[in-house]
Amino acid sequence: MSRPTSVIPHKTQNVNELYTMGKKLGQGQFGTTYLCVEKSTGDKYACKSIPKRKLLCKEDYEDVWREIQIMHHLSEHPEVVQIRGAYEDSMSVHIVMELCAGGELFDRIIKKGHYSEKKAAMLIKTVVKMVEACHSLGVTHRDLKPENFLFVGEEEDSALKATDFGLSLFYKPGEIFSEVVGSPYYVAPEVLRKYYGPEADVWSAGVILYILLSGVPPFWAETEAGIFKEILKGSLDFESEPWPHISDSAKDLIRNMLNRNPTRRFTAHDVLCHPWIVDDNVAPDKPLDSAVLSRLKQFSAMNKLKKMALRFISEKMSEEEIGGLKELFKMIDTDNSGSITYDELKAGLRRVGSQLMESEIQNLMDAADIDNSGTIDYSEFIAATVHMNKMEREENLIAAFTFFDKDGSGFITIDELQQACHEYGLSDVHLDEIMKEIDLDNDGQIDYNEFASMMRKGNSGQVGRRTMRHNLNVDLSDVLNLEGK
Hints:
This protein is α+β, with helices and mostly antiparallel strands. It folds into three domains: about 15-100, Phosphorylase Kinase, domain 1; about 105-290, Transferase(Phosphotransferase), domain 1, CATH 1.10.510; about 290-455, EF-hand (Recoverin, domain 1). The chain is built from 21 helices and 13 strands. It has helices at about 15-20, 60-75, 105-110, 115-135, 190, 200-215, 225-235, 250-255, 270-275, 290-300, 305-315, 320-330, 340-350, 360-370, 380-385, 390, 395-405, 415-425, 430-440, 450-455, 475-480, and strands at about 20-25, 30-40, 45-50, 85-90, 90-100, 140, 150, 160, 170, 340, 375, 410, 445. The strands form five sheets. The protein has a five-stranded antiparallel sheet. Helix 2 packs across helix 12 (about 320-330) and helix 4 packs antiparallel against helix 6 (about 200-215). The radius of gyration is 24 Å and the shape is globular. The chain starts with 14 loop residues before the first helix and ends with a helix. This is non-specific serine/threonine protein kinase. It is a lipid-anchor. It catalyses: L-threonyl-[protein] + ATP = O-phospho-L-threonyl-[protein] + ADP + H(+); L-seryl-[protein] + ATP = O-phospho-L-seryl-[protein] + ADP + H(+). It is an enzyme of class 2 (transferase).
């Protein structure tokens, strides 16, 4: 089977025209990360360059494309390194992202030995908030370890962010994976048994917490096979130093994160509600809604002009920016018809644990169904679920304003709104009410500032270094034979 020639399915700008490449910051298994400076602003970023000669088969190309899409998909979360853009030339793929100059969590642990309980709780909270965000968006990370978390700056209390989504996957609720990937000390027992889901991420986070508090991994041996035997059968050591001085509450949390039974293991939300993690006795009240539900709720509260503008903006977005939403759409559109019916939406929301009443689901359905066809088609779904931070970019707002301002006068009139409604197949829209809501100076038309403030209103709130990429080079049969003993 022939190898593909490109990762990104459309032509991109040349990265060297936009950025000046600087010193090497780090080396991964597939790519090298460099400091880069944006020529137009002087702002500093990190650029991960992946030589295409290292991508040996179709799956490798797909992995890199998926990594780019997942970074865009997670881009609103403060615990994730922000992607700036992806570029491709004949030799390499370049992912430009936020610069985190404070180094790896791994290196700080080595330097410190271990952390105080208070500091460890703050760090693990960031890790687990990232895991909860991933799971709410239908993504499993699959390679959580201290090397994959970077500090933004050198300061002791600098923010911590997740990076490297090279092994991450989109998943459907209940989906089972069998590929053995991860990193030896952090891999969950069910991954070694080749039958696992997103719960494996919480195990890996539990291993990180154990290391933060003690400086050593909970399951350790001289060889990889030995480490895996310990992961499958070994007991947790809470007797050696410094464990006698560590609180029972911390140990209780670790036991629940390192429960070998994934169905009884804490979820990310359970961890965030545990008394050892909770600041000032205020636990988060409920798990993060699935992204589909929270974004549909937000969309349903918008006026028709805002919905049309979002539709326009989402149709202009690049494939990598909406790739994650496409996966969420496919998860709900179970018959692959290209549109979501009421029953499919109801079943999809149930699968992600939603307790909504039928009338509430119908309201979300009606809100997203812009053209009143009775179903939510693909472009309606993307418009309704695209995250606000993408929509709020100035260039997107200007393009949407220009779309409505047909005569280029710098104002949107009621006639121009009427025309846009006609183009989108909308009827009986109360345009005079929308106009009143947005036209702050009551001059009968909407200028750019009024349009931009409407669009932005109400949108806030919202220790082993190796990675096993494809398959472990250890014969797992020896390890798994222990299972029966």
